[in-house]
Amino acid sequence: MSSVLAHGGDVAALTGRHLRHLRRTPEKIIGVALTPVAMVVILGYLFATVVEVKNTGGSYREYIMAGVFAQVGLSCIGITAIGVAGDLGKGLIDRFRSLPMGRATVLVSHTLADLAAAALSIALVAVTGLAVGWRVHGSFLENLTGFLLLLGFAYAMLWVGALLGMVMRNLEAISGVAALLLVLFSFLSSSFMPLTGLPGWLRAVAEWNPVSAVSEACRQLWGNTGATATGSFPVENAVLVSAISIGLLIAVLIPLSLRVYRISATR
């Protein structure tokens, strides 16, 4: 990442370019926020009176909101992957490569601009949640920490998308894989239902799913209805586990993505 620091002006310039493009194509934000907003309305509004979070006595609407927010990060995978693959297909990234800028600049600026779209999507989901009755009950610092965890998770998922876009490049295939990841990691987690009903081995997988950790960490920080105490380390220490998971994902995905980017430049 030293090349990024050395070419900070280039990163800022390309990030600004992506942000201007984002302003002209607001449907990108809609694409990230559409599924989470729909989940807020369908689950939090229509099902809130008929679904009960067992053994907690809490509100199902409060329970699901953290998982819905985590879905924003998962939705970012497809948006970034399609954007990177589209730039590769149009030869835009090849033109950037001919300029005197760090090789990491292109991908870093892409993910930073998409992070702004993720932040706006999180805000849109929050407004929708407030409209259906969701509230936070933690201190200002705790509430802020929860949203910062969401942004960190979204940034990690943006790098998953960047890697996916460079590896697959086919837009139809990317859309299918991104949709599968969204469904798989959302529902094989504690996003929408407690994990107590799962078989032991599957429950362990779901508990260590980063989506579960981020969701439960936000519930704890916001004072929302959370999972029942199970003695499980990732549930009892969700804030710590989510922070470590996000850090590890970013530490692995950024160098790996940059390596794939350098290899693709020699093809």
UniProtKB/TrEMBL annotation:
Question: Please, which domain of life does this record's source organism belong to?
Answer: Bacteria
> InterPro entries from the entry?
ABC2_TM (IPR013525), ABC2_TM_bact-type (IPR047817), ABC_2_transport (IPR000412), Nod_factor_ABC_transporter (IPR051784)
Q: Which residues form a coiled coil?
A: none
For this UniProt entry, which segments traverse the membrane?
29-51, 63-85, 106-132, 144-166, 173-193, 238-261
Q: Name its cellular compartments.
A: Cell membrane; Membrane
Q: Which UniProt keywords apply?
A: Antibiotic resistance, Cell membrane, Membrane, Transmembrane, Transmembrane helix, Transport
What is the topology of this protein in the membrane according to its UniProt annotation? Multi-pass membrane protein
Keyword Translocase recorded:
no
* Start and end residues of each ABC transmembrane type-2 domain: 27-264
Q: Which Pfam families match?
A: ABC2_membrane
The text of the family note is:
Belongs to the ABC-2 integral membrane protein family.
Family matches, as PANTHER family: NODULATION PROTEIN J
The protein in question is named: Transport permease protein
